Amino acid sequence: MGSRYSRFPKQNDAYQFYLACQNGETATVESMLSHLTYKEINQQHENGRTPLHAACCYGNKKVVELLLERGADRTIENHYKLTAFEESKANREIRDAFKRPETDVTRFVEFAGTFSTTYNHDDHTRDVLSMY
Fold first, then answer.
1. Residue 57: which of 37, 32, 80 has the closest Cα?
2. Packing angle between helix 61-69 and helix 13-23, nearest 10 degrees?
3. 83 and 63 in one domain?
4. Are residues 93 and 132 in the same domain?
5. Residue 21's domain is classified under what CATH number?
6. 132 residues of the chain, pLDDT tens digit each
């Protein structure tokens, strides 16, 4: 039985893109974003991480911003059932990159129609979940 995650061939653009995101190679990421498909931008590595997960884990804020601007999927979970946002919980600068412009609210749409909103007030975080 095969893995549900892609095994990137070493020469594959998606693999090179994942590495560029992980390593904070902003110029390479910018260049590659122009010709990668949505599927390639969100392709999961064997560890379940997407390029967005990799950029978040390694603290590459500019890459995170570029990926989010291009519409990277914020809801994909890795093997540990963590989204990229959840993996970046120790890095406030990365978490701030997930905020919508001109607001203090971060929004996620999760499975089964659940809507999750994180409010940040006075350095306290509170998650609110509701059904559609």
1. 80
2. 130
3. yes
4. no
5. 1.25.40.20
6. 344 445 555 567 888 999 999 999 999 999 999 899 999 899 999 889 999 999 999 999 999 999 999 999 999 999 999 999 988 877 888 888 888 666 555 545 444 444 444 444 444 444 444 333
Helix then strand then coil, in percent of the chain rounded to 5, is 40, 15, 45
State the Cα–Cα distance between residues 25 and 128, nearest whole angstrom.
35
Q: Which residue has the tokens 């594959």?
A: 12
Q: Which residue has the tokens 């609110």?
A: 128
Give the predicted TM-score (pTM) of the model. 0.69
- Domains contained in the chain, number: 2
